[in-house]
Each structure stands twice: as C-alpha cells, then as structure tokens.
Amino acid sequence: MFENPLTLVSTLVEAACAWLMCFGLMGLFRWVASRESFTVLYFSDASYWTYLVHLPLVIAGQLVVVGMPVHYHFKFLIVCAGVTLIVLATYQFAVRYTIIGRTLNGPRTRRQQLPAAQPVGQG
C-alpha cells in the first residue's frame, strides 16, 4: 500500500490537515459568533422549518425553470433565491408565532416596538 515513503507522509499530512481545519474552523466560528445576534437567532429558528419544507419547493421550482432559455447557473440561482424567500416568508407569517412554531422551536414572544419619538418641547 505504501511502497513510496512519501505516500505515507503525504497521507499523514492530509489527515492532520483535515482534522486541524475542522478544529480551527470551529474555533474561528466560536470567536466570530460569540456575541448574540438577532439575525443568527432568526435563521437558526427558521432552519428546521426550512429543512422540513424545502424539498417539494425545490422540485416545484425546478419544474418552473426547466423550460427557460437561460443558462443553468442562472436557473440554479432563481430556484435557490425563490425557495429561500418563500420558506422565510411562510416561516415569518404562518409559522413563527403559531402552534407550529411553538412545536418546532418552543414559545416565542414578539419583540416590543419602541414608542415613536416626539418632537422636543411636546410631551
């Protein structure tokens, strides 16, 4: 299997590189994402809904774009963007604060809006 000594060395270096990249990227992510972010939390909550409903939407999207006379890279972008928009819209308006959302992610409360600012001297 390892007739050439360099084959063994390169195999060990490649395996070490893969492991070190995994641990390095996990550490980088922990460092970058250590602060709380509403956007990350929102997409994290929406991810399970996305996982559950994306497949039929992707199939439907492919059926819609199959006859378009455009390059397949553009078709890919259309399907990805369209499905993402549909999934996030359905999550926001039909899932997040409903029984489905509570089942998927636990209870959520709506963010309170700040009162409108009043001009100085009135109030």
Mean pLDDT: 88
User: Please, how many helices?
Assistant: 4
Q: Which strand-content bin applies to the residues?
A: under 5%
As a whole number of angstroms, the C-alpha radius of gyration is 24 Å
Helix content: over 70%
Q: Kindly report the oligomeric state of this protein.
A: single chain
The ordered string of helix (H) and strand (E) elements is HHHH
- Give the overall form: extended
Spans of at least 5 consecutive residues whose pLDDT stays below 50 are none
Return the structural class: mainly alpha
Give the distance, in angstroms, between the N- and C-terminal Cα atoms: 84 Å
Number of strands: 0
> What composes the largest sheet?
none
Short key terms for the protein model shown above:
single chain; 123 residues; mainly alpha; 4 helices; 0% strand
Task: Describe, in plain words, how this protein is organized in 3D.
The chain has helices spanning 5-32, 38-65, 72-95, 99-105. The chain has 123 residues and is mostly helical. 71% of the residues lie in helices and 0% in strands. The chain has 4 helices and no strands.
Q: Which helices and strands appear, and what pairs or packs with what?
A:
Blueprint: H1 5-32, H2 38-65, H3 72-95, H4 99-105
Helix pairs in contact: 2-3
Structure described in brief:
The protein has 123 residues and is mainly alpha-helical.
